[in-house]
Amino acid sequence: MKAILSMSAVYAACLLFVQDADAQRGPGFRGGRGPRGDANFVADRDTFHFLLENHKQIKRQVTLLANGVETLTTSEDKQIVERLQEHVKAMYERVEKGNPIRRRDPLFDELFRHAEKLDMKLELVPDGVRVVETSDDPFVVKLIQAHAAVVSKFVEHGFAEAQKNHAIPPADSPSASSASKLTEEQQRKLLSFSAAFDRVYIPALALTNQQMQVPSEAAIARLRAWTDTKSSDVRELLGPVSSDSEPWTTIQNAIEQADALVQAGQLSEAHEALEPIRSLLTEERKRVSLTYPIDRLNEFHDVMESIVKPAMKANLESIDEQFLAQLSEKAVEASTLWSRVEQTSFTSPDFQLTDEEHQKLEQMIAAERKALTQIQHALRDGDYATILQAAIAIKPPFAKTYMLFGDFQDE
Question: Higher pLDDT residue, 173 or 48?
Answer without folding.
Answer: 48
